[in-house]
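Note to self: keep these together.
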Amino acid sequence: MKSQINRLPVFNISNFKDYCNCMQFDSNFYIRRFSDHVKENLFISVPHAHDFYLMLLVTKGSGKHYIDFKEYEVHPGAMFVLAPGLIHRWEMSQDIDGYILFFTKQYFMLDFKHDNLSRFPFFNANSSIPYISLNRDETEEIFVFYKLMDKEYHDRNLDYHEMIRMCLNTILITLSRKLLNQHNATFAFNYEIVQLNTFYGLIENHFKEHQPLSYYCDKMNLTTKQLSYLCRKLIDKVPSEILMERVILEAKRLIIHTDLSISQISDELNYNDNSYFVRLFKKICKQTPDQFRSFKSMSQTKNLISQTKCS
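Structure:
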C-alpha cells in the first residue's frame, strides 16, 4: 500500500481481498459482488483514496457516500464512477449489494487510444461528476454488462480481457450519455480539452511546489495568454484560480483527515508563513482552518450519534 501523510491511505488493487484468488493473475482489474467486497474489505469505511478507477453499481440497500466533502445518497440505481486520487468513505446498510469493479489506466489503454478516458465526463479534470442516478431499466442494462465481465473474468476463456474492456467501454459510453442528459450538458473531446486536462495533470503533480504559471506554460508549449484564454473559454476560470483550488482542496483534506496542526499543514503545502496561509484559507473558504476543522468534526460526531441510534 502506498501511504500519504498520516491516515490518508492510497490503496492499489492488490490491497483488496479476492475470494477466488484471481488477483494472483491480475493486479490491474478487479470485479466482485459488492456485498462480498464490503464484508471482506472493512477498511473502506475509513477515508481513503485509490490509484485506480472505481465503478460501483448499487442494486440493493442504502447509505451515504462521502467524496471530498460532498455527500451522496446510496440507493438502488446509484452509480458511482471515481477517478484516482479522490478521498472518499462509505456508510452503508447491512443489506447493501450490487457490483463493484476497479481498473487501472494502463489496463484500459491496452485496447484504446491514449487519453481516451478523459473524454468521459466523470474523468474529465474540470467537470468530474462521480454520481449518476439510474432508473430500473437502466440499472438492469448496466447490470447485464457487469455479470458478463464477471463471468469472463472467472472463466478466463480466449481473449477474455479484450471482452472485459469492450464491456467496460460500452458502460462508460452509456453512462456518459445518461449523465450529460441529466445535467443538460454538452461535452466534446478535442485538442482544447486535452490541453486543459494536461494542465490539470501538471497541477496535480506540482501544486505543492507553488510553481509559477510560466512553468506550466513552458511544459505545455503555450504562452501565458494562450493558457489563460483556454481556461476562460472552457471553464470560465483563470489558471491561477484553478491552481489555488487544488491547493485549498489539499488543505481541507489534511485539516479533516489528519491530526497535523495547522502550522504543520502550512509547512506541508510549502507556505513558510503560517499566518499568511491562515489568511489565504479564510479569504477563500470564509472561515479559518481551525473553524473548518471544528465544524466538520461536529458534523461527523452528529453522523456517528445518528448511526448509533439507528443500529
